[in-house]
Design a protein that fits this description.
By secondary structure, the chain is α/β, with parallel strands linked by helices. The protein folds into three domains: 314 residues, FAD/NAD(P)-binding domain, CATH 3.50.50; 112 residues, Flavocytochrome C3, Chain A, domain 1, CATH 3.90.700.10; 83 residues, Up-down Bundle (Methane Monooxygenase Hydroxylase, Chain G, domain 1). β10 and β11 form a beta hairpin. α1 packs parallel to α13, α4 packs across α13 and α15 runs antiparallel to α16. The protein starts with a strand and ends in a 9-residue tail after the last strand.
Length: 538
């Protein structure tokens, strides 16, 4: 099972907006980059699924107003340093890298006589400041990034590469003296190569985790399949600090089709005027938030939908587009229109059945404004990280902006450190041992793995979902820990594979979320306790 050993200056794990921009900026500054994805195509990411847009700067906008909106949505527990860093640097990076650099085609104003962009409105934003490309913004950005990376000579992109563990000096060096080093360091990763079914050692001066969130540990999610928190649990095992794991944001509106994987209905649809109503035809957001109504922060809209479903004993609510959105709906939201049409729903004539779904992790690996973690040599950017920007609840369309901004600054920081000679000696690199297989049993029974996943997903949805209670969390932790003791033995005895790695990481992610939720007795933002959901205030 042991494969080859290779070295690179910068190892980036994940090909979404954060990882791709990090790899691109670092490479343009002369750094040798190896970019990994566990999927068969680097284009398969959560970024690719992002519909709404990326926050920029609109008319009558200002950094202070943007800051105020972020903090209000985040319930005031945001990192002020991170918020100020984003509002001061983010829009300029959008202009420099996306608009002028990659020539991303954002939707222009519909008035031909006036130049500019068609800014969208989304929940909890005071002004229209969202750049979009119809309703497939992430796809357009991702295409531009991947195309640019393909033209970059000093970037090697490897697909079908699933990371098992981060390499650290104290855990994986054959040099006995390394265990006495006071300050540990990340030196790359052990990576399972799916095609040859071997574990390669990829050594790196600097390693960047850009593996995304963990939505797929829930029964219903808008995330790409396999998004299970790999980077977070690897960083945790390596000794990096993890923060705010209880704050899992559920997107209020995903298409409700029984038995089908959830499809996101962008918040921009409500920004254009669409309204939520229950099956009795009552528009209900006015009573939960009279000020912002259907454009209240996501945590409030999600809780309101959940309450309506519980109160009325209904499995979904309705999003009324036809009666409230002016203009050409098919032109503004072509992806949503086409997907709903394929499901037999004409959104220009009938409402869309919607339910909440796990969408975004506001916590993750604690980083500073350069993406540096508490483990030397390890960076984290994008959803896998916790910059503190989002606090207890993310403001709409700040995820792409965060990934872009931190990915860019992490790359610049790494390039500066490499060019200044801040690198690990060759002798230290050579001391890292090859992968030692934990088990050789060829017993990867897909039925057993599928059953374990169903238990994890149902447990997280029912006990660690939209509304939580001490009893639900207690049961979740007990059940997940019991499963972990069994899965860990299975993991140690069985030959490594992508599916087993994913199960092992996903289960650990679930435990991290449940335990963080149990520790936090304060109901706030995305972490909503059962005795507090009746009073929703902005």
């Amino acid at each position: 099972m042991s494969g080859s050993i290779k070295e690179t200056e910068c190892l980036v794990i994940g090909t979404g907006i954060a990882g791709s921009i990090c790899a691109l900026v670092a490479a343009r500054q002369g750094v040798r980059v190896t970019l990994l994805t566990k999927r068969s195509d680097p284009f398969i990411t959560n970024t690719n699924l992002a519909q709404g847009g990326i926050a920029y700067r609109g008319e009558n906008d200002s950094p202070e107003l943007f800051k105020k909106d972020i903090i209000r949505a985040g319930r005031g527990i945001n990192s002020i340093e991170a918020v100020e860093f984003l509002v001061e640097n983010g829009p300029a990076i959008v202009e420099e890298l996306l608009i002028k650099g990659l020539h991303v085609e954002f939707t222009p104003l519909r008035r031909a006589e006036v130049e500019g962009f068609d800014f969208a409105q989304e929940g909890a934003h005071s002004v229209k400041r969202i750049l979009h490309s119809a309703d497939c913004t992430g796809k357009v950005i991702e295409k531009a990034l991947i195309a640019a990376l393909e033209r970059q000579e000093n970037v090697e992109v490897i697909t079908g590469a699933t990371c098992i563990d981060l390499i650290t000096l104290q855990h994986h060096s054959k040099d006995i003296q390394a265990r006495y080093v006071l300050k540990d360091r990340c030196l790359g990763a052990y990576v399972f190569m799916e095609e040859k079914r071997e574990v390669d050692v990829i050594l790196a001066q600097y390693t960047v985790l850009a593996t995304g969130g963990l939505g797929d540990i829930y029964l219903h999610t808008t995330n790409e399949k396999g998004t299970v928190g790999d980077g977070i649990v690897m960083a945790k095992r390596a000794g990096a600090r993890i923060l705010n794991m209880e704050f899992v944001q559920f997107h209020p509106t995903s298409l409700y089709l029984p038995g089908k994987r959830r499809f996101l209905i962008s918040e921009a649809v409500r920004g254009e005027g669409a309204r939520l109503k229950n099956l009795s035809g009552e528009y209900f957001m006015d009573k939960y938030n009279p000020q912002f109504k259907d454009l209240a922060p996501r945590d409030e809209v999600t809780a309101a939908i959940w309450m309506e479903m519980i109160k009325n004993k209904e499995e979904y609510v309705l999003l009324d587009v036809a009666n409230h959105v002016n203009g050409n709906v098919q032109e503004r939201f072509p992806t949503i229109f086409r997907t709903c049409k394929d499901a037999g729903i004409d959104i220009t004539r009938e409402p869309i059945p919607v339910v909440p779904a796990a969408h975004f992790l506001c916590g993750g690996i604690h980083v500073d404004t350069r993406g540096r973690t508490t483990l030397e040599g390890l960076y984290a950017v994008g959803e896998v990280s916790c910059t503190g920007l989002h606090g207890a609840n993310r403001l709409a369309s700040t995820s792409l902006l965060e990934g872009l901004t931190w990915g860019c600054f992490a790359a610049k920081d790494i390039a500066e450190r490499i060019h200044s000679g801040e690198t690990v000696k060759e002798k230290t690199m050579r001391s890292i041992r090859e992968w030692i297989p934990a088990g050789e049993l060829e017993n990867e029974d897909p039925a057993l793995i599928a059953q374990d996943w169903m238990v994890i997903k149902h447990t997280m949805w029912n006990y660690v979902g939209i509304v939580r209670s001490s009893q639900r969390l207690k049961r979740a932790i007990r059940d997940l820990r019991h499963m972990y003791s069994r899965v860990e033995d299975f993991y140690k005895e069985t030959a490594v594979s992508k599916d087993i790695i994913s199960l092992f990481h996903g289960l650990q992610s679930a435990i991290l979320v449940a335990e963080a939720a149990q520790r936090n007795r304060r109901s706030i933002g995305c972490h909503r306790l059962s005795n507090s959901f009746t009073q929703i205030k902005i």
